[in-house]
Write a structure and sequence with these properties.
Oligomer: heterodimer
Number of strands of chain B: 10
Largest interface: A-B, 17 and 27 residues
Number of helices of chain A: 14
Strand content of chain B: 25-35%
CATH architecture of chain A: Orthogonal Bundle
CATH superfamily of chain B: P-loop containing nucleotide triphosphate hydrolases
Distance between the termini of chain A: 44 Å
Shape of chain A: globular
CATH architecture of chain B: 3-Layer(aba) Sandwich
Structural class of chain B: alpha/beta
């Protein structure tokens, strides 16, 4: 079996596992946690495209997540628009705001970009928190409806919402896979590699960076909108800076700039933090050092570590195969010589 | 074809090049000589749009390209092969070459043709097309960098110190290839410290010293110019 088929088998297995999980474990609480982590994964994938593949670490993504959530909440609660239209609109609204912010923030680079977007994220939080008449301020927005029915499909139960979010997650991963393995994906990686070099071979770096920024805010907005309709209540704290650092932790632990990183990191941290629930906020005493160690020893996270290990193993295998081949060739020659002598 | 008129570039208060005049005719091979920090690379960056000149104008085929962005300048037909063999090291050789054809990404036939040309010029790249660019030797990396630049089908190819850090035998091959590329019809602007080798293949040359052109002329003239001989050829 080739490595590609093995990979396909693992992926299919995971999808099936995610599909039948509600039947194995009928605990509603776990279903709830899992659905939430799927939503976070979508946002982390958005962040990964920008920070991981293009090299621009945005700290405004909690803000975009909140914009998506509040757009959906306001459109359904205050404007009374159909849920699915509101879902599409919230993604569009987030992307448009992302476009405008990207136009300005992408003129900065590296840590200046990170600091700038950190400020943007905080401004978004403040606007949501203080604009009482629109967002409800600290009281938040209550009574956000669950997704409306599509024909006979109803999304009232936790189980159906689980499948809905799973669908969006799989769609996100599929889109990411296609982007990363296309010329556009390589263009983004080229920009991460060296923006100047990318410019000298004719890549319009500003245009490409803007495309990535908008794409990544789109996914943050989608995650936010799904969050709003799943939790049914949103407050300004979903746009607070701690949220972006949570997302960043998921990404760094899983593996920044890898396709599987967001899933691995989010699953791991969410499940560990669930099982350490009894420690309350002292959990951070464990997470802090753990994160530091991972960054020092595995800068590309858990997934990066495994892919490096796999590559190394493959290359040593290849080398030993070559050696064997050379040896058997020599044996053949010996045999040949013997025969010649006999002849 | 290319004309620099009194171009100056400043980094803060330090002026890297000072009213530089350079002219390159179609089909020529022109060399810029000078030691480290003389302003060769800055001149290249000004031409390719990475640094905007504070003064002066740059004309390419009669149009000013001074205010154009780097990607537009590549589209216009000027490509720079940067110093130090900068590659996308985690991408394969093939992927690096395809990235080079970025501006022609919609013209599949042209990309295929350029790829064929590059493979003919550097057969080793075809042999190693599925290897990571980072795993190549220094000489092969330089070939890949030049090959990637050629994938844009440039009218003017700018090579910034292609011989730097290479074994003497490989340097010789490199200059043969550059001469070959020029004979096939691509205008070449070359920056070099290896004056001896560069002047052998070049038509004309400019000598830089602390940001200004101090001597210019045909290769044969420069070759016999005493000041140039002392400073760069060492004989």
């Amino acid at each position: 079996m080739g490595p590609l088929q093995k990979k396909h088998l693992i992926i299919t297995g995971l999808i099936i596992l995610a599909g039948i999980f509600p039947f194995i474990n009928q605990n509603d609480y776990w279903l709830h946690i899992l659905t939430l982590s799927f939503i976070w994964m979508i946002a982390v994938y958005g962040l990964n495209l920008l920070a991981g593949y293009t090299g621009y670490l945005s700290l405004a993504h909690a803000g975009f997540f909140a914009i998506g959530a509040y757009s959906l909440g306001l459109l359904t609660v205050k404007a009374g628009i159909n849920y699915w239209a509101a879902l599409v609109l919230s993604c569009v609204i987030t992307s448009v705001i992302g476009f405008l912010i990207g136009l300005i923030s992408l003129r900065t680079r590296e840590h200046f970009f990170a600091i700038y977007t950190l400020c943007v994220g905080y401004v978004i939080y403040l606007v949501i928190d203080k604009w009482d008449s629109l967002t409800g301020g600290v009281r938040g927005l209550i009574g956000i409806p669950a997704p409306s029915n599509i024909g006979p499909l109803s999304f009232e139960s936790t189980l159906s919402q689980y499948y809905l979010v799973l669908f969006f997650l799989l769609a996100t991963i599929f889109v990411m896979y296609r982007i990363v393995h296309s010329l556009s994906g390589r263009t983004f990686i080229a920009i991460r590699n060296s923006e100047e070099l990318a410019g000298t071979i004719g890549i319009s770096t500003m245009k490409n960076k803007l495309v990535v920024f908008v794409l990544s805010t789109f996914f943050a907005g989608l995650a936010g909108a799904l969050y709003a309709s799943f939790i049914r209540f949103i407050g300004p704290d979903i746009g607070y800076t701690t949220v972006i650092f949570d997302l960043l932790t998921y990404l760094l632990v899983g593996g920044i700039g890898t396709l599987a990183g967001p899933v691995v990191g989010t699953m791991l941290i969410v499940s560990v933090s669930q099982s350490l629930q009894f420690l309350q906020d002292y959990r951070m005493l464990i997470f802090g050092p753990l994160l530091t160690l991972i960054i020092i020893f595995y800068p590309r996270g858990i997934v990066g570590f495994f892919s490096d290990w796999y590559r190394k193993r493959q290359s040593t295998k290849l080398q030993s195969q070559k050696k064997k081949q050379v040896k058997s060739n020599m044996d053949d020659e010996d045999l040949h010589e013997d025969r010649v002598k006999e002849g | 074809m290319l004309k620099l008129e009194g171009v100056s570039v400043k980094y803060g208060s330090f002026s890297a090049i000072n009213s530089v005049d350079i002219e390159v005719e179609e089909g020529e091979l022109v060399v810029l000589l000078g030691s480290n920090g003389a302003g060769k690379s800055t001149t290249f960056k000004a031409i390719s749009g990475l640094e905007k000149p504070g003064e002066g104008d740059i004309l390419f085929q009669g149009d000013s390209i001074r205010k154009k962005s780097p990607d537009r300048i590549v589209k216009a037909g000027i490509v720079q092969c940067a110093e130090g063999r900068e590659l996308f090291s985690r991408m394969t050789v093939f992927e690096n070459l395809i990235m080079g054809a970025y501006v022609h990404r919609k013209k599949k036939a042209l990309v295929k043709k350029s790829l064929r040309n590059v493979y003919e010029l550097f057969p080793i790249l075809e042999e190693k097309k599925n290897q990571d660019a980072g795993s190549l030797s220094g000489g092969q990396q330089q070939m890949l960098a030049i090959g990637r630049a050629l994938m844009t089908s440039p009218k003017l190819l700018m090579l910034d110190e292609p011989s730097i850090g290479l074994a003497p035998l490989v340097v010789e091959q490199m200059f043969e290839v550059i001469e070959h590329i020029n004979k096939e019809g691509t205008t070449v602007l070359l920056a070099e410290q290896n004056a001896n080798a560069a002047l052998k293949i070049a038509d004309r040359g400019y000598v830089f010293e602390s940001g200004s052109v101090v001597v210019k002329g045909a290769s044969s003239e420069l070759f016999t110019n005493d000041a140039v001989r002392k400073a760069y050829i060492g004989a």
